[in-house]
Eco47II restriction endonuclease (Beggiatoa alba B18LD), 252 residues
Amino acid sequence: MNTYNLNFISNENLFNHVQETILKYRFKMDLKSFNQNLVDPIKLTFDHIIYQKNPQLLINDEIMRQIDKSNTNHIGYFHQNIFNYLGNGWYVPAKGFDIVNDELKIFVEMKNKHNTMNSSSSQKTYMRMQHAINQDPCAQCFLVEVIAKNSQNIPWIISLEGEQLSDERIRRVSIDHFYHIVTGEKEAFKQLCEILPVVIKDVVNSIKQEMMQNTVFQELALISPNILQSLYLFSFAEYEGFEHFRYTDDAL
């Protein structure tokens, strides 16, 4: 194991946390999993004909999109759960707020991007934070954004039923400022980002990494040699008349 030279987290804890994140990554896709989100063969038909793109490439793009969406959730795990290792009373509770420090009375909701929440979820989160500070006037609540528009630690201003609400104890904080609060080091987040590629490579070299297993195309071929026809037959198998469906693009 390399020495990572971060004052706020041990080499072992950083390595283990990165390893836990990588082991959550998705390496398998079969037809059933692929269609869990109800893939739309009609959209793929439009895309195929309009962009003159091979159906296999379109389906592969959709497979990678689904895998990427799953893996994005695991990056959320990385961002949140690293605070279990930073000490000074910070931890990730089993339920409730994402990150908590009971001694400092700080309660954190973490979002990966500044535009993740719509107005309804923003209002719900803000009211939850309002409840927390009403229960304890010494409490502070942070909306921490990993990908924020600006480096900031400012009151969170929200519009609720046409009225603008703000409270100094409910704050909108970019991840760099939050790392500064947690570790006492102004550039802690920058230091983590700089060493992260090294840690990821160390972990990948230390584990028996799975190869990507994708059986979607083999399973579609068992239904029909025409990929798009297979997808129609699979997606609409229970619909009236589709047992006799024929895809009519003669170019395929």
In short: The beta strands are 28-29, 90-91, 99-101, 106-113, 140-147, 153-155, 158-160, 163-165, 170-174, 213-214.
